[in-house]
Specification:
Shape of chain B: globular
Radius of gyration of chain A: 13 Å
Mean pLDDT of chain A: 94
Strand content of chain B: over 45%
Structural class of chain B: mainly beta
Radius of gyration of chain B: 14 Å
Strand content of chain A: 35-45%
Order of helices and strands of chain A: EEEEEEEEE
Distance between the termini of chain B: 39 Å
Largest sheet of chain A: 6 strands, mixed
Helix content of chain A: under 10%
Order of helices and strands of chain B: EEEEEEEEEEE
Low-confidence stretches of chain A: none
Oligomer: heterodimer
Largest interface: A-B, 24 and 21 residues
Chain lengths: ~110, ~120
């Protein structure tokens, strides 16, 4: 059982926007602005997508992150076929560990 | 640019010790620039953070694995390693090594190895 809670799946049509939630507690997401999101295509290693509200170089501006209390959100705007992948959230915790969500499978219809 | 490569046995017998190595290129593991992490992913499941180590040997471990886990550095080979004792089928997973910048607490895992598959079976 994962520490952070994500929906198992979301879907959207090309051009639409979708949002994936990631729920934690006051000991992780709610305590720090240290939430990361990772994208994983089948058979590949995860790739950093967003850290807090920051996008690493090379990551499309169609991806954005936000947080409210103990829940973080990943929004993808202008959905493209290449966005179809698994998405994982992660947070730093008060005991100097990292925790992950169970992952959300995004289907582009 | 730091690059990471995992290596180790692909098959481990139950109750034996699972040992993996991550070879680092592009930086020295003694530089103090990064925390050196291990993460795993069971087949068809999500990611699980295993633990990390800093250049001075300080470690942070997943509480659920702490009693079986050792992460160490080999400075002469610029590698860091994972040892997980008393392996069971539940330890079957793809194991990744990854770096986390040391300048900011809670920094993301921004470079990953390609992963290595370990199966625990007799």
């Amino acid at each position: 059982q994962s520490v952070l809670t994500q929906p198992a799946s979301v879907s959207g049509s090309p051009g639409q926007s979708i949002t994936i939630s990631c729920s934690g507690t006051s000991s992780d997401i709610g305590r720090y602005n240290y939430v990361s999101w990772y994208q994983q295509h089948p058979g590949q290693a995860p790739k950093l997508l967003i850290y807090d509200v920051n996008l690493p170089s090379g990551v499309s501006g169609r991806f954005s992150g936000s947080k409210s209390d103990n829940t973080a959100y990943l929004t993808i705007s202008g959905l493209q076929a290449e966005d179809e992948a698994d998405y994982f959230c992660s947070s730093y915790t008060t005991i100097n560990t990292l925790v992950f969500g169970g992952g959300t499978q995004l289907t582009v219809l | 640019q730091v690059q990471l490569q995992e290596s180790g046995p692909g098959l481990v017998k139950p109750s034996h010790t699972l040992s993996l190595t991550c070879t680092v290129s592009g930086d020295s593991i003694t530089s103090g620039d990064f925390y050196w992490n291990w993460i795993r992913q069971p087949p068809g499941k999500g990611l699980e953070w295993i633990g990390n180590i800093y250049y001075n040997g300080n470690t942070n471990y997943n509480p659920s694995l702490r009693s079986r886990l050792t992460i160490s550095l080999d400075m002469s080979k610029n590698q860091f390693s994972l040892r997980l004792t008393s392996a069971t089928a539940a330890d079957t997973a793809v194991y990744y090594c990854a770096i986390q910048g040391a300048a900011v607490r809670g920094a993301p895992l921004d470079v990953w190895g390609q992963g290595t598959t370990v199966t625990v079976s007799s």
